[in-house]
Design goal:
The chain has 10 helices and 10 strands. By secondary structure, the protein is α/β, with parallel strands linked by helices. The chain has a 7-stranded mixed beta sheet. The structure holds S-adenosylmethionine (SAM). S-adenosylmethionine is lined by residues 25-27, 78-82, 86, 120-122, 126, 151-153, 156, 207-209, 224-226, 229, 255.
């Protein structure tokens, strides 16, 4: 027994568990994640009042409520860290290049729609940062901006929908933008996003390992700091799915520490962590 009162997961259990997580959400856990897995699973077991992994795995693999437990488990093992205007070069590029390109094409009817997807949006800071960048750089009254923000985790999505953030998460938001798009609480330790900004964002649960249920394509897809958990094969499959849902000339943004080297795809490299679909 260890200090949390649980035996360590044995090799066979660990291998089966890694396989299960990989099949369900593409996250590739390997042996050096073993301690992390152990401590995160221990929390789930405590929450469920279980005292051994056998019972937990039985519930996970065969239980009646296993879909619910899969969501809780994936919440526990995935990393949801994010903040407003994280990796700000993407927002600079949006303002300097993407938005002027979109604005310069006069569109009619459904073509006037601008469709952006934040895939793996976590608690929502990324799609709200995208919405602020658009609001600052284009007259939204003339265009129909729709931001789809998806994640695997229901917990982060419910936080995102509330749109309330600790000041710490807003460290990259200037005083002027804070004033314009947020309302602070009495001691200004928490801020709520204005409804006008939230109204162009739709939050939905989507596992990126599944087929994408969209009828139309996107002008820009953000999938940042998500693929880092996936192996090359899974990344390759995903990037090709993203490409097939991008408009010609549309952009894919990935995290700065991620790379598509050795990933087969048909996108054109623009600059680090930024790719474009051929026009
Ligand atoms: C570190 S956050 C990234 C948030 C934001 N994109 C950013 O760059 O700040 C990674 C998110 O990816 C989500 N995620 C991991 N695997 C996923 C999958 N298979 N499908 C959908 N979302 C997934 C996690 O739930 C988590 O919220």
């Amino acid at each position: 027994m260890n200090m949390v009162g649980l035996d360590k997961i044995n090799d066979k259990e660990f291998a089966r568990f890694c396989d299960f997580v990989y099949q369900r959400c593409g996250i590739n856990l390997n042996d050096n994640k073993r301690d992390l897995v152990h401590s995160r699973l221990a929390k789930r077991l405590r929450a469920l009042g279980l005292d051994n992994y056998g019972e937990y795995f039985e519930l996970l693999y065969n239980g009646r409520d296993n879909e619910l437990e899969i969501v809780n488990l994936l919440d526990a093992i995935s990393t949801n860290v994010t903040y407003f205007f994280r990796e700000d070069k993407h927002f600079d590029f949006l303002a300097s290049t993407v938005i002027p390109e979109l604005a310069s094409t006069k569109k009619r009817g459904s073509e006037s729609e601008i469709r952006i997807w934040s895939a793996g949006c976590s608690t929502g800071e990324e799609p709200y940062s995208i919405a602020i960048t658009f609001a600052e750089n284009i007259a939204l009254e003339n265009r129909d901006l729709r931001i789809l923000a998806t994640d695997l985790s229901t917990n982060v999505l419910s936080h995102a929908r509330k749109g309330v953030y600790d000041k710490e998460r807003l460290r990259n938001v200037s005083g002027a933008l804070l004033k314009k798009y947020f309302t602070g609480n009495r001691d200004r330790s928490r801020f709520r996003v204005h409804e006008k900004l939230a109204s162009c964002i739709k939050f939905a649960r989507l596992n990126l390992m599944h087929d994408f249920p969209f009828k139309s394509r996107f002008n820009c897809i953000f999938c940042r700091n998500v693929m880092i958990y996936f192996d090359r094969q899974t990344q390759s499959r995903l990037v090709n799915k993203f490409s097939s849902f991008l408009n010609p000339g549309g952009y894919l943004m990935i995290g700065h520490s991620e790379s598509l080297t050795n990933v087969k795809h048909d996108l054109v490299y623009v600059q680090p962590s930024l790719y474009r679909k051929k026009s």
